[in-house]
# Entry
Amino acid sequence: MRRRQRIAAVLAFVVCGALAVMGLAALGSATEGPLSSALGWLGAATGAIEHRIRDRLAGPPRRESLRWLESYRTSADRLRAPDFVLLGAYDGGAPRTFDGVLELEAKIGAPMALIQVYTAWGDKADQQFPVGLLTAISGLGSIPVLTWEPWLSDFESARHPHLPLRDARDKHGMAAVARGDYDFYIDRWASEAARFEKPFFVRFGHEMNDPYRYSWGPQNNTKEEYIAAWRRVVDRFRAAGATNVLWVWSPHVAYEYWDLYYPGAAYVDWVATGVLNFGPIAQWSRWWTFAEIYGTKYPRLAAFKKPIMIAEFGSLAVGGDRAAWYDSALRSIPGEYPATRAILFFHTRDDQTVTYQKVDWTVVADSVVAPTIRNALASGGLICPRREGCR
Amino acid sequence: MRTRDRVLIAALAGVGIAAMLRLADWWFRADHVGQPVLFVLLSLAFWYSVSRIVLGWVNYAAVAKPDHRPARPGRTVAIFTTSTSGEPLAMFERTLAACRRVRYPHTTYLLDDTRDPRFRELAERHGAVVLELLDVPGAKAGKINRALATTTEEFVLVLDPDHIPFPEFLDRVMGHFDDERVGFVQVSQAYYNQSRSFTAAGAAEQTFAFYGPGQMGLYGHGASVAIGANCTFRRIALESIGGHGIGLAEDLVTAIRLHAAGWKSVYVPEVVSRGLVPEDLGSFYRQQLKWARGVYEVAFTELPHLTRKLRWRQRLSYLTIGTYYLFGVTTPLFLLIPYLFLWTGVQPTSMRFAEFLTVGAPVAVIGVVIYVLMQRWLCDRSSERGLHWRGLMLKVACWPIFLAGTALAVVRADLPYIPTAKEAVRGRFLRLAWPQLLLMFVYVATVARVIRVRAFGTSEGSLELSAEAVWGMIGFATLPVLSSLGATYGAWQARRIPSDAPWDHVDVSAIGGAPV
# Structure
């Protein structure tokens, strides 16, 4: 070979090699789940089609009872400023079934416009974008509320060599999120969220000011780090075109200085808090009225000028009159707390997230509480917007 | 095999094994355990199946083809073929005529127990010597041993009577005996009737890979086996192990004993004869039952006491062969799982269907790629390559046969030795197809129930969330049903037998004849 040929051959080899490497690299980042993601969407589509077929065969679907919600289900902007209270629930049967939600709404006579599910960050299948759950919720005619918990230590070290070892990950973990260390995960969610198109709520990193419960709390992170992480997440979603996501900022208002964790009006669509009356089951607890839990904090929540979501709403039965608790709470909301735009029943039979014993938040089996709730909702006009008529 | 091919296969197998490790790492997770007993059973069945794939690759990695060695003149060769009552005379007409045309000097013997003077007359007309061997126990192998005692040739070609040898048969084989350690030389097996029915095509397809890369891999591992037909033995080798083995798997038993006695074997991947493959489903089932029952003798009887005398690669090869028909145990389990779930909700595992497909797909893809790639080593590539879907359909449909063979082997029950039918046998459709029809019935009933329950009996709150599992399971149940269509069609074809015999169309003077 002459010199010119040799140089040409070497160049050709380098170019081909570079193309091959780049191709493989592109494939590498894309293979992080494209097949499972495609199958997830296929599964969701199968479920949706089957649901439609069933509607034809077996009569009117639940969606019909939420027809008035249709304009909200398709418009994120309308959901950013709703003019009535959306009712919703999280039920412990998820992600297996939403029958508990259906049972609850039958008992209290009000269709649940919002259905909440919880999902954690991580590598496992149920920690990926839950397109099946979201599709199922919207198939039922509701709007999904996704509580998204950034448990950083659920990512396997072997698969993510750039991350610190699991034990070391939580300390200033939110700073790492803000730096972009978790963009590999956030971006995948963002693009799938955009692909989902329909609006849904994301309650990211809730109760970030509770120093005991969650790894993203102040025991590991400064509030500046949390805010930077929040903004990073929101920015990545927006960059991916996921403007259908409504961002719900949800501090634990029982701890002081919670409002210092606010990421800013441009980054938050709704503010939220939990209102759970544990009664005297634990040392730290007693029978709290709704006004004691919510009313005292309401003015500061309302000051953000955003719709307010009561993301976890409920009372245990021990230690007081549960029916009266629900009754006064629900009757007080329209008049005293007018910025409240969503109430999500926390409805699970065996909650042991806070206490060591299982506690039961359900009301469906209670022949006094359920009708009380029904009446309180009806009298407050909370069942559905009056002007659009209810079935 | 050229180095380039070897590197390619090894690289693919390496990737495949990596994918398998990933699959294993994913499979064996505590939170994947559903019903524990079923999980254990499913895991055993599944990983047995995966291990078969790996064993296949291990075998393929050794693929080798011996260089041709010209046959030295002056050796004495006998061709043994057997006739027994009920076998069609016209078939022997072709076989014996072809034997006479085999170029290398030899003597053809007809080992006859028909008591039919027409066979003697036919044999003499074609210059074959008739050995009348009446009431010899041990079926075909018994007659071979008896004939060995009355003949003196150094080499014996055992030819199945349906096989029509080409004139160059012995010229392609005898040279390999120049190596004094070679005990037997096996050639490929091919058929001339495989296009005559679905069953024949499927049965033939099942053998292609074995007689191509399969046996070539065994040869590379020093364990190419005798397969009952078209095997040429060195007399003193047979004598060293007390004669030809007897039983349903007489060929394999003979091969393992010869290997254990230190003899080498050569596999010549050339088509130098063509014979018959079962044309009707009933005959195919009988042949498969015979094989399934017989092959276990390798695992149960021969391997335990011969294993010390074999090299490890031979051990592995014989273990692979001896456990092949466990397929009949794993398949019903795979069949059962979707129905169990769809009727009772019981699941062996809580794996998500989509995730299983994702993690399992690389293994499957590599498996198919290697299978297709290895088709370069088929004996007759132009007619044999393809995805062999008919063969696969018949294999899946045969699980009750394999299961029966396994059960009979475990309880050590004997099957009578019946030569595989040479002519199509008319079968009653229902008698042959009922297992397939039953499966289809259960399938249709199950799908109907699922549709009814999901349209009218499932609450809306669970419908979409259970869709993936339910329809995934239906998909899982659908594959064997599609597969059973093949055997059902085979049974349908077996209702009538063709008016002509396969050998009617064979012109012996035009067969073979490749230059030596």
